[in-house]
Amino acid sequence: MIRAQRAEQQNDSDWSLLERVVQKDESALAALYDRYSGLVFAEATRILRDSGAAEEVLQDLFYQIWRTAEKFDPARGSLPGWLLVAARNRSISRLRRRSTRDDDELTENSVVLPCNLETTAAQNQLLGRVKTILGGMPDGQREAIELAYFEGMTHSEIAEHLAMPLGTVKTRIRSAVEILKQALA
Amino acid sequence: MTNGHPIRAEEFELFALGVFPGEESASIQAHIDSCPECARKLAEARGRIALLALAAPEQNPPAVVKQRLLEKVRAEKSSTIAPARVRETRPSAPWWNTVWAPAAVALAIATVFLWISDRRLDQQLQQIQQATRTYQAQTEHAQALVSVLAAQDTVTVKLDATPAMPKAWGSVKYNPRMGMMCYTADLPEPPPDKVYQMWAVPMTGNPVSAGVFMPAAAHNGQMLAKVPTGMDCKWFCVTVEPKGGKSAPTGPKVLVGTL
Fold first, then answer.
1. CA angle, corner A147, sides to B33 and A144, nearest 5?
2. Which one of A173, B83, B253, B259 is at 20 to 30 Å from B164 when CA atoms are compared?
3. In whole angstroms, what is the distance from residue A39 CA to residue A50 CA?
């Protein structure tokens, strides 16, 4: 019975699960957690390099979904997109000891993912694709875009960190972004 | 800048990545807040950039995180349901329905009663929280003491009396690696408005205060102090200082020990 219910929840869309979270159905929250906690935790751990802090970010995000699920608007973007962006923002803020405005993120950070991540198969496929795209970039480009994404560094900070001219850093990041865009198009 | 938009089409991803300096970023954000077309483009760019997260090494969170989350959620659910039940049950006694005034009085009494019990519960909760905090502080203090006393690189320094107080004695356990010291001292009551103050004196630089104390507190050997890690200490001393202590020794030395 429970297994059948779990299988059914695995097939539910994010939005139908969110509607049930609005009705305070904790099994729907658990289903969303099972679906996306791995992605969020991996991202937060990579940024913070501290699994304990990453666990806190993960728990806070899903608790925010529980408290404010009614604020999510499907027309404004996707739930996994919001989760990935919010996890990055909060982790970088923690890393740099900046404050965040958690409740505003829901309405301010619309994120439209170019693909569906609702199933494990789709996630695995995309994981492989992103790693292939980054693996195909020249080392300098990959390093620069990873410093920007995972360390939250600006152009100037990356230039200083790598002891490189600012123009070189800007070119590398722009090229890396172009490769990403084209590969995901 | 193109057609009144401060951001070119190919720059939305860079903005989403956060590589622009603060001022430029703020002016772009101000425009996006009022431009639906740019807001839509940014949402799409954010989605493409967000996929970089998938480059992180795969990791699954420990099962306990989900357990904690669901416990928190259940606790919230039960706390929001409880008051509703109270409201449903209290006014339901049928024979009151025809006697409004006594019912109102009863309700008022019940409200006062509930308010009093709520305050009592609140006070009990505060007492429990205070006791828990005290217990935690004591536990942490004991753990720190044990760690200093058990460390192999902790040194013991005997404190000798000075002519100012010939019967006094004391000792210090000092661990420079941990930057911790604990000490004990047998001293008479200090003069009114005075306290004893322990000092760690380095080879170079000014003496560092290791706390003020009264004889009763130091007698059982549980005074614990944090000093700068790796400090090259030369000697320790106890002086008599005004209440609250001083930033540098001013009073007479009553105990002195050389490392």
1. 100
2. B259
3. 15
The reply to whether residue A154 touches residue B20, judged by beta carbons under 8 angstroms, is yes
**Is residue B8 scored above 80 in pLDDT?**
yes
By the 8 A CB rule, do A61 and A86 touch? yes
Q: Which domains does chain B have, with CATH numbers?
A: 9-118 (no CATH), 155-258 (2.60.40)
Residues B13-34: pLDDT tens digits?
A: 999 999 998 888 888 888 888 8
- CATH for A105-184, options being 1.10.10.10, 3.40.228.10, 2.102.10.10, 3.20.20.80: 1.10.10.10
The average pLDDT across A88-109 equals 70
Enclosing H/E stretch for B212:
strand B208-213
Q: Which of A95-99, A101-105, B143-147 shows the lowest mean pLDDT across its residues?
A: A101-105
Q: Hunting for tokens 């991540």 — which residue is that?
A: A117
* pLDDT at residue B91 in the model: 46
Give residue limits of the domains in chain A. Answer: 2-102, 105-184
| Residues of chain A found within 8 Å of residue B73, distances taken between Cβ atoms | 26, 29, 63, 66
What residues of chain B lie within 8 A of the CB of A58, using their CB? 61, 65
